[in-house]
Amino acid sequence: MADKAKKIPRQKMPEQKPEIRRSNFKEVPFGFDKETALLEASRCLKCKKPSCVEGCPVSVPIPQFISLILEEKFDDAIAEIRKKNFLPAVCGRVCPQENQCEGSCILGKKGTPVAIGALERFAADLEINAGKKDVCLNVKKTGRKVAVVGSGPSGLTVAGDLALKGYDVTVFEAFHKAGGVLVYGIPEFRLPKTIVEYEIEKLKSCGVKFVLNYVIGKIKTINDLFEEGFDAVYIGVGAGLPSFLNIEGENFNGVFSANEYLTRANLMKAYDSDYDTPIAVGDNVVVVGAGNVAMDAARTALRLGGKNVSIVYRRSREEMPARAEELHHAEEEGIDFKLLTNPVKVLGDENGRIKGVECIKMELGEPDDSGRRRPVEIKGSEFVIDCDLMIIAVGSGANPVLTRSEKDLALTKRGYVEADSETGKTSVKGVWAGGDIVTGQATVIMAMGAGRKAATDIDRYLSEL
Amino acid sequence: MYEILKREEIAENIILNEIKAADIAAKAKPGQFVLVKANEQGERIPLTISMSDKSKGTITIIYMVVGKSTKIFSSLDKGDFFEDVIGPLGMPTHIEKLDRVICVGGGTGIAVLYPIAKGFVEKGSNVDVILGARNKNLLILKDEMDNISKNLMICTDDGSDGRKGFVTDALKDELEKEKADLVVAIGPVMMMKAVSELTKKYNVKTLVSLNPIMIDGTGMCGCCRVSIGGKTKFACVDGPEFDGHEVDFNELQMRLRAYLDREKKSLEDYNCKISGNR
Ligand SMILES: Cc1cc2nc3c(=O)[nH]c(=O)nc-3n(C[C@H](O)[C@H](O)[C@H](O)COP(=O)(O)OP(=O)(O)OC[C@H]3O[C@@H](n4cnc5c(N)ncnc54)[C@H](O)[C@@H]3O)c2cc1C
Ligand SMILES: Cc1cc2nc3c(=O)[nH]c(=O)nc-3n(C[C@H](O)[C@H](O)[C@H](O)COP(=O)(O)OP(=O)(O)OC[C@H]3O[C@@H](n4cnc5c(N)ncnc54)[C@H](O)[C@@H]3O)c2cc1C
Ligand code: SF4
Ligand code: SF4
Ligand code: FES
Fold it and tell me: Measured between CB atoms, does A274 come within 8 Å of chain B?
């Protein structure tokens, strides 16, 4: 078996060529066809103690689903994945596999790991293309009502799990579309919105109700929800408060948070001329930060017509937190990386428009709290990058809209909701929380994992009532 | 979908819509606003809840037709629908019983000011109102304001109604005449700036309501950031009302021009389209 795996190289997904894709919003990789998927699946050693599964935050039964693909039992394969992962088509695309499942695959030690994410995507896409939705037939109703606040991956998982257990679930969402970061943040070229829509339609067919345009904390408090007859509430409102650099000139026109830029582009579809949303298109664009959000902002600015798009990051390449694939794609598309560089001041013209960013060069010093070497300024190394658009993607914090209205809900010093890491229980009876509003911005799969644990505990609590 | 129950042009280019939105009406407080989106392709436009009626389950918005989105809103009739109405957003006005509040409104700012003035009256405060407009045809909510205020003073640029001149002239006289506990000033940015500079001299606390460009209205994008006492605040969640003596009005004015060219073009294209279709 091991020999065989060595002979077959890791299969690559075909993708749009960089020169073409840098000016369209269509998805970059096309996904495996059946033959490639079977070939890739045949590389898996079906380990008795699969280390890949330990690397997956929700323990997807990886060797089992890969075997089922190999046997061409595609329906069973997706059913196997769905036992643990509620959004396989999403995770197959956006999980940082190199740090998770694939990072722990035994084959990775000697050569290249099995392309677990791509196989997961393959199985999930087959299901979506077949349009299967009747997953909730014959579920016995419990007669109890659960409210889910926020429709990101975390909230959707809770809704799905509890609907399957017979609860009457209503999801309240502040935006006019459901899906959280999956619809307003992650761009179409990485995650087609039809995938998220499919999952949401499926939930609706299971009886989950979606109430959009509904900001909990404003239009209703959590207490109002209990008074209206909900028996439990799950808070999955994400960590959407954008951080700025707090440097001079940051309020000049042409300086955006990545959240604003991406929301205009994705949710409000500014790239589509049929939509009324205005968006700034820059010739010379500077994006500050080096996570997934920064890559998404840079590649969006490029697709909207940016000529020179640079990533400015104060640490070095090794510390960049973005997924390996995104970095690779961004480089291929011609994004310029200005590493060990930190913005210190935004320069503007007499009309209040940005015309450049003054930056300073950095070097790496002693390790800091995060274990990464701390960047320190090199005195006298200031220089100016001319630009007409700047996007700030240096992280986000806890949004206070909901928590401000809930005086009894215990929060951490930084404003996140305090919740038990095993059950998601908060300080308020009948209220659970999970996802980014508990952990700070993390990953889709972590948010889903937290949702799943909370759903289990909510079910336990409600069956004991 | 949110049904429009009433459409009325209450002054030149200023439209009033009463909208069915029971849950919003039940919670709306003076100082709060909604985001309105006409259709799938539309922008999310912030507009103050000028009136709300819990028992009827309705809210009222009053807006000036200035660009493409408000033009589309104004084309909707009674019985038509807004696709999305989100709210109530923003912090409610802190309303208390005061001996004398002077409410100063300019242009469509009067629509924003009305629920606040009414709130102070209902709490038992004495409220004097100064309204300004370029001319008498642009003046809105005059009778409504007259009904609730102790004194109503009108200023028009051309003298077609009330006194000829700016609201600041009338306000200065009032502040000279008798002490005030609070001034609430809502209108064009430069009007709020002038009022705040004046009241600073008289040391009277002043509330203004800021109208930066917004998207989500829930603190998620930072588009609505304003500088208050040197600190960045998000008008949609920390405001929209702030202490007028702390606001950087010049920066706000500058930021409001962000999409000027594009918006002008978008309106021109839209006007061409509708006239072409005729
Ligand atoms: C641009 C970008 C790219 C990313 N790329 C990746 C990636 O490649 N891989 C990865 O694993 N992770 C990625 N992430 C992180 C990942 O998307 C998040 O960790 C995940 O979405 C968190 O899920 P959640 O359910 O906790 O919250 P969210 O997805 O943030 O959803 C929260 C929802 O709650 C709603 N809401 C907020 N307040 C209220 C309220 N008061 N009432 C009602 N509704 C409310 C919001 O509108 C939102 O829809 C990315 C994030 C961003 C921003
Ligand atoms: C909290 C809040 C409450 C508001 N309440 C009201 C209200 O009750 N009645 C009302 O008439 N307006 C109100 N506004 C202003 C209103 O939102 C804008 O007039 C509207 O966004 C214009 O949209 P448009 O597409 O029609 O015009 P656009 O094409 O977007 O703009 C046309 C012109 O208006 C300017 N403009 C754009 N956005 C704003 C803005 N936010 N404020 C002022 N000027 C702007 C542009 O610079 C341009 O000159 C409020 C704004 C905020 C933030
Ligand atoms: S959910 Fe993510 S981490 Fe887990 S197996 Fe799938 S791609 Fe890997
Ligand atoms: S560790 Fe790698 S080879 Fe082993 S079961 Fe998991 S995917 Fe297959
Ligand atoms: S409108 Fe987005 S933060 Fe205020």
Answer: yes
Assign domain A145-240+397-463 one CATH number from 3.50.50.60, 3.30.420.10, 1.20.1070.10, 3.40.50.150: 3.50.50.60
DSSP code per residue over B5-66: EEEEEEETTEEEEEEE-HHHHHH--TT-EEEEE-STT---EEEE--EEETTTTEEEEEEE--
The H or E element spanning position B257 is none
Domain borders along chain A are: 2-129, 145-240+397-463, 244-394
For chain B, list the domains and their CATH numbers. Answer: 2-89 (2.40.30.10), 100-255 (3.40.50.80)
Judge whether A145-240+397-463 and A244-394 match in fold: yes
**pLDDT range class, residue A278, cuts 50, 70, 90:** confident
Two tokens, residue A53 = 């599964």
Q: Do A219 and B87 touch (CB under 8 A)?
A: yes
CATH class of the A244-394 domain in this structure: alpha beta
pLDDT, chain B, mean: 90
* Contact between A241 and B220 using a beta-carbon 8 Å cutoff: yes
Any A CB within 8 A of B267 CB: no
Residues from chain A that touch B233, judged by Cβ atoms under 8 A, are none
Assign B40 a pLDDT band (cuts: 50, 70, 90). confident
Q: Exposed, middle or buried, B79 (CB in 10 Å: 0-12/13-18/19+)?
A: exposed
CATH topology of domain A2-129: Fumarate Reductase Iron-sulfur Protein; Chain B, domain 2 (1.10.1060)
